[in-house]
Design goal:
415 residues, mainly alpha, 16 helices, globular
Length: 415
């Protein structure tokens, strides 16, 4: 295979920089032009591969991965939008911990995007008399990121690994100790924060701390089951995606409009994700191929799992963690000269585990580390919850609360 020029990594870098900075510096301009930016940069890379490198097969393989990825995300997003959870009452600190724990489990079934969109409004509602920015921050940490590392459905990087050949149950079998450790520490930290807040807040009326729960759109659980079942179908080709699309259409057209209206459901967030990831999947091809071919020069001949944990994680915190995962998986292939995923799993499973955990856990460090983060922040802003700025989130929450968790996971499992 002809290696791409290092200069062709520029569209990828430019796209990631614009995704990270433009929504913060010029949100109006970004909303008007993000489609042109993402698809334009993606088109440059596709033309390079097809007409200059004469490697249309590489582009087609990437297009297939993108289609599978966005169909999974879109079907889960649609089905979760048809489920309405209504919470009435006042949440206690233990009640909040239980909610976050359940949310972490649900993230492995609905994906972090689906779980975050399903649960963020009930989360705000059950804490409406005393909701603070730390409620949103820990929701991002747990439900939108760390909680989803037990299945390929849970977080986009892990699904891309599944598409590359990582077995479905390998994730749960190998990631659960880090999941349990990280989740336990985060829930403990949250409990002490929330208990302090709960004890200081004076409520004008406090009839009961008992929450009452109501669910609407239960039929969507059947469509969710269809999506989960389809994940295990590999042949014939595209049958998995067709079942997911059928479930999404069935959910959308059978869900009562009142449920969609109550959830403020629309396809704008999905459209934005689809467009941006189309650009990301296209522009990241030269970066992945170049990194694979030059990994030994960049990372050395024998990098440790700990080095992959911090490197993949560090990039995931400032870039989107899905392409970062693929980048470092490609780098591992380059350093080991093992290009088949089964060979990598046989000889370097600890490295793949480090990349997986690093990408998922570090994705919680910033608003742009993982797709749901910024969506959760937007909903918090709509509900007038004062949230810190981009650097404020890092210094107020990521460094004092998330960093100790990352250090503990590294020390226990990857040192």
């Amino acid at each position: 295979m002809v290696m791409p020029s290092a200069w062709m990594i520029l569209p990828f870098g430019l796209l990631l920089i614009t995704i990270g900075l433009c929504p913060l510096l010029s949100p109006d301009w970004w909303q008007r032009h993000y489609t042109k930016v993402a698809l334009g940069l993606g088109a440059i890379t596709l033309c390079y591969y097809v007409f200059i490198l004469k490697n249309a097969g590489r582009a087609l393989h990437t297009a297939h991965d993108y289609a599978s990825f966005i169909i999974l995300i879109g079907s889960l997003f649609t089905v979760s939008g048809g489920i309405r959870i209504i919470v009435k009452g006042e949440a206690t600190p233990l009640g909040n911990v239980a909610f976050l724990l359940v949310g972490a489990v649900i993230a492995n079934l609905l994906g972090t995007t689906g779980a975050a969109m399903l649960l963020i409004r009930p989360w705000i509602g059950m804490n409406q008399t005393r909701v603070k920015s730390y409620h949103i921050a820990f929701f991002i940490f747990i439900v939108a990121n760390v909680g989803g590392c037990l299945t390929p459905i849970g977080d986009p990087p892990l699904f891309l690994g599944y598409l590359e050949g990582v077995p479905f149950w390998w994730v749960a079998k190998n990631c659960w100790p880090m999941w349990a450790t990280g989740l336990s520490i985060l829930l403990l930290l949250f409990y002490f924060l929330d208990r302090n807040n709960f004890s200081r807040v004076i409520h004008k009326s406090r009839e009961s701390h008992t929450e009452t729960w109501k669910f609407a759109g239960r039929t969507n659980l059947l469509f969710l089951a269809a999506i989960l079942g389809a994940l295990f179908i590999n042949q014939p080709r595209f049958l998995r995606e067709l079942i997911m699309l059928a479930a999404a259409f069935g959910s959308y057209f059978t869900t009562n409009k009142s449920v969609h209206e109550a959830n403020h459901f629309n396809f704008h967030p999905l459209r934005e994700v689809a467009v941006l990831f189309a650009g990301i999947f296209a522009t990241m091809m030269p970066a992945l191929d170049w990194l694979s071919g030059n990994a030994r020069e960049v990372l050395g001949t024998n990098p440790t799992p700990g080095e992959f944990f911090w490197s993949a994680g560090g990039f995931s915190s400032v870039l989107d963690n899905a392409p970062t995962y693929l980048g470092f998986l490609s780098a591992l292939s380059g350093t080991t000269r093992l290009y088949d995923i089964s060979d990598l799993l046989a000889h370097n499973s600890a490295h793949i585990l480090a990349i997986s955990i690093g990408a998922v856990f570090f994705g919680a460090a910033t608003y742009i580390g993982n797709g749901p983060n910024f969506m959760v922040k937007s909903i918090a802003d709509q509900n007038k919850i004062p949230m810190p700025t981009f650097p404020g989130f890092i210094f107020k929450f990521a460094l004092p609360f998330l960093l100790p968790v990352l250090i503990a996971v590294w020390w226990l499992f990857f040192k």
